[in-house]
What we know:
Cat_transpt, potassium, ion transport, transmembrane, transport
Amino acid sequence: MTVSRTVCVGFLTVIAVGTLLLMLPLATATGEWNSPIVALFTATSAVCVTGLIVVDTGSYFSPLGQGIILLLIQLGGLGYMTATTLLLLLLGRRLGLKDRLAIQQSLDTAELSSAASLIKSIIAMTLIFELSGAFLLLPRFSADYGSGRSLWLSLFHSISAFNNAGFSLFADSLVGYARSPWVSGIIAVLVIIGGIGYQVIMELFIWLRDRIRGKRKHQVFSLHFKVVTSTSLALLAVGTLAFFAVEFFNPATLGPEPFNMKLLEAGFQSVIMRTAGFNSIDIGSMRTSSLFIAIALMFIGASPGSTGGGIKTTTVRILLNCTRTVLKGEDEVLAYQREIPDKRVLKAVGVVVASGMTVVLVTILLSLTDPGIKFIDLMFEAVSAFATVGLSTGITAQLSTMGQCVIIATMYIGRVGILLMMSALLGDPKPSTIHYPEEDLLVG
């Protein structure tokens, strides 16, 4: 059992347990045994923090079933190794080298010595943001559902938003609160915070702490922090302007709304399309050009070390800087006056190529299992599942059993990561002392 296989098997184990629990009569609103495919699909979507559903979560599942889904979302958002490490720490066990390597690989961090403190910080940070989000959502939901029901709604949607899961207890997701800047704003902030990664949050926290304490020491932000924040802001701005312009006159989405609401909903969709899965407008009614924009944003996804999926913002930034390097005739890939290591460039290329091939293969399989559905809808569904976004044009429940199985596998691959999945299947690479002669070839 290599580190990558441990992580992959761990996620499969959590999904299997979640499936069995969701099949119980106590988990359904009718009190009957749940369908195995529905239970498996829902458990996989929750553990992989995707949000794609084949049944309405709020009406199909009982309060216990909803609680199981929320627990699976929390475990999936934290990651199998994070949750397992927390359990080991609570039991008083010391972390071995294999445990530290697994944490390093699952969180995509270079630190080994501070694994235990890192896990504690992640848990504390997660609880703080989730409880704060629930507290802020509570007044708005209380006005509509009373104190008891609103408390559960606030907690559920706060955890779902921070973990970029996109599960909602409302049948229309957040369409009913599309004109509520308070609900949309809080959900969007939780999604952004959960999607930028723990390292960025910690650096920002340290910077704010020093400012509050009056320390004059200048903090040098890491290259990771600069790349993630600048790329995320750029994608947010571009997505907002794109959706605003394309859907401005669409009578089924932004057309009837006043100007400020159009801008608000366009910005909300720009945030959500990256990885979360909530929606405040009917995705199936969007123009084809908007769906392609959404596919691009979903494919990029969130940032490394976060609860989101996709190829990640840093990957896209590295490839863009590579392109700039080629156009300028230079030999070094630079970002903020720092040279990016060749191994990171190679990893970025590998992630994009492998992810693109996976999406193409999944789209082909869906077109074979469900030939009656439009191609753009199938492609949207494939990218949404792979990037663990959870948005759909409304075809998820219409897919055949084989089509749903394809989506289940895609969500799993997208959550564990395509390179980690390949490493688990092929095994760890063996070191070699052989170096072959170099020879040039034509490119482009």
